[in-house]
Design a protein that fits this description.
By secondary structure, the chain is of the alpha+beta class. It is built from twelve helices and eleven strands. Strand 4 and strand 5 form a beta hairpin. The chain starts with a helix and ends with a helix. The mean pLDDT is 87.
């Protein structure tokens, strides 16, 4: 059965949106956001403000319902008047259990923010595929649902209701999915890569097949037939969109699945090789080493050693 490649990737990488807090303000104000992680998210629940990012010439206006994703280590300033001296956000103490910071008694503007937590595979996939700046405007097709999610998030963050933290995490995950869906509506939002392939409806049938059965020895002819194209047209279109030929894309997806299994599962290299469709352990080991520069066994020993050291 064909599967949804985006859901497959989110599950593989354990991508998790973490809403860490929010702020409300009125009048003239500005807050500096220092990057603690590379993939950050800012959403305007009520009102409007401006965002300026180091290296970006002009400020960006954020309206009610807008969501902004930053992929990079550049600091940013958000505020009503960017000429005002910015306050460091990490020096402000939340005055609510939900992590809300109130800069004034009035609430002309309310924003929430957080980051997307990724495992090592997710960093490889998402950070390379997302542009430095992604602006989802309130006018986008997914905007009404985004606004509802933002309202629900804020309600959970500012309430003392039982289960508020659990509900907040749930809404944050849905927010991440809706942000990605909105981004995927514009193929030009992404550089060539796996996210851009998801925007191509002609390639989608072949992509779903590869994700449904990555262990199968797919022939280029089969994938081209699924996409209703000739082999030549399919191969050229896929490479232009994904940045990789179709079967190379499949190879990399297998290796990513292997990386996670080697880090986290108690499975022998022989069993893993068989589950991913390799004819022998040596074939799998050679393919893995060609891609990662290290053998599967060494990769497992090294990554688990690092994890153990981090926990001690």
């Amino acid at each position: 059965m064909a599967v949804d490649p985006l859901s497959d990737a989110l599950a593989l990488t354990r991508a998790h949106c973490v809403i860490s807090g929010g702020l409300s303000a009125a009048g003239a104000w500005a807050v500096r956001l220092r990057p603690l992680t590379q993939l950050r998210l800012i959403a305007v629940v009520h009102g409007s403000c401006r965002l300026t990012i180091e290296g970006v010439e002009r400020p960006i206006r954020l309206g009610e319902g807008d969501v902004f994703v930053l992929n990079g280590s550049q600091p940013a300033v958000i505020g009503s008047e960017l000429s005002v001296e910015a306050v460091e956000l990490n020096q402000l103490s939340p005055d609510h259990p939900g992590g809300m910071v109130h800069l004034s008694r009035e609430r002309e503007v309310v924003c929430v923010g957080g980051h997307v937590a990724l495992d090592r595979t997710g960093e490889d996939l998402f950070l390379a595929a997302l542009p430095p700046l992604t602006h989802i405007r309130a006018e986008a097709a997914e905007a009404p649902h985004l606004q509802r999610l933002l309202d629900q998030l804020l309600r959970e963050m500012t309430s003392h209701r039982p289960g508020a933290d659990f509900a907040k995490d749930h809404h944050a995950q849905l927010l991440l999915v809706e942000v990605l869906r909105s981004s995927l509506a514009d193929p030009n939002s992404f550089p060539a890569g796996w996210l851009r392939v998801l925007t191509d409806e002609r390639l989608a049938p072949a992509l779903r097949l590869m994700h449904a059965e990555p262990s199968r020895a797919w022939a280029l002819e089969e994938l081209a037939t699924a996409a209703a194209m000739s082999r030549t047209t399919f191969a050229a279109r896929f490479k232009k969109t994904a940045g990789l030929p179709p079967l190379t894309y499949l190879h990399h997806w297998r290796i990513r699945k292997a990386e996670r299994a080697l880090r986290e599962e108690d499975i022998t290299v022989a069993a893993l090789a068989a589950s991913l469709g390799y004819a022998s352990v040596s074939a799998f080991s050679n393919a893995f080493k060609r891609t990662k520069g290290i053998s599967p066994r060494r990769y497992r020993d090294t990554t688990r050693g690092l994890l153990a050291a981090g926990e001690s």
